[in-house]
Structures are given as structure tokens and as C-alpha cells.
């Protein structure tokens, strides 16, 4: 259990509450605010993002700060894939460009595990990037 106020909706998830968690995550990540995003995670959260391992809310903030310095004009869309008890699986894609103006669409899957207070304690993400033309953007 976290020492903070509950972060609704809480597990065990239903189709409706799992979809709400996914939408809340999409909305938060699209702010590109590392501090705001990090508040959805436990203090000791554990991440695997591609080949990087991130531990704790402080490292999450640093990771996201660096991410959004590189991935400019980031726009994300998440989709609920599956859920059970305190776990949710998500499919996502996001678009961004680098400092040289090259656009990318990044595709991936995430597995999330929540504590009883609704904070994400584990996030495992597999992600692949594809170069796209700016005219091929969808998001």
C-alpha cells in the first residue's frame, strides 16, 4: 500500500475501470510533464522501457525529461488490450520527430501492475520505431 491517497480507479479492475486507467495514462503522458506523469507510479516503481531499466519515481521523472527532450511534438494513443485483477495490458502507438525533423511512429505493448491504492508498481514496455514521412502522420 502507498502512503498517498488512493488513485482511482482501484483494482481489481473491470472492463470499464481498466479502460479508465488506460485513458488517464494516455491523457497524462500527452501533457509531456514528467512530474505529473510520475505521480501515477509508486515511489519504488519498477520499469523496463525498451532496453532501459528505471527504478523509482525520481528516475521516472529523469527518464521522461530526457525522453521528451529527444522525442519532440510527442503524441500518444493507448488502447486497452486485456486486464485481470490488478494488471492491465496495453497496445499503443505514438508519433514524434527528432531535432533534425525526421518523424517516427513508435509501436509497442505495455504490461502494468498496480498496488492496492491504484498506483502503478510495475511497467514493462516493448517498443519499436518506424521512420515515417510527416505527411504519413495519423496522430
UniProtKB/TrEMBL annotation:
InterPro entries documented for this protein: DUF1348 (IPR009783), NTF2-like_dom_sf (IPR032710)
Domain of life: Bacteria
Residues spanning the signal sequence: none
A Pfam family per the record: DUF1348
Protein's name according to its UniProt entry: SnoaL-like protein
Species of origin: Mucilaginibacter yixingensis
Taxonomic classification: Bacteria, Pseudomonadati, Bacteroidota, Sphingobacteriia, Sphingobacteriales
Amino acid at each position: 500500500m502507498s502512503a498517498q491517497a488512493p488513485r482511482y480507479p482501484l483494482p481489481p479492475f473491470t472492463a470499464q475501470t481498466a479502460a479508465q486507467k488506460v485513458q488517464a495514462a494516455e491523457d497524462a503522458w500527452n501533457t509531456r510533464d514528467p512530474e505529473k506523469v510520475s505521480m501515477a507510479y509508486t515511489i519504488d516503481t519498477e520499469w523496463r522501457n525498451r532496453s532501459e531499466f528505471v527504478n523509482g519515481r525520481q528516475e521516472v521523472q529523469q527518464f521522461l525529461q530526457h525522453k521528451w527532450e529527444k522525442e519532440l511534438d510527442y503524441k500518444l494513443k493507448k488502447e486497452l488490450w486485456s486486464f485481470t485483477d490488478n494488471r492491465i495490458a496495453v497496445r499503443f502507438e505514438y508519433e514524434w520527430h527528432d531535432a533534425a525533423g525526421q518523424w517516427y511512429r513508435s509501436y509497442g505493448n505495455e504490461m502494468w501492475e498496480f498496488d492496492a491504492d491504484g498506483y502503478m508498481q510495475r511497467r514493462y514496455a516493448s517498443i519499436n520505431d518506424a521512420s515515417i514521412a510527416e505527411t504519413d502522420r495519423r496522430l
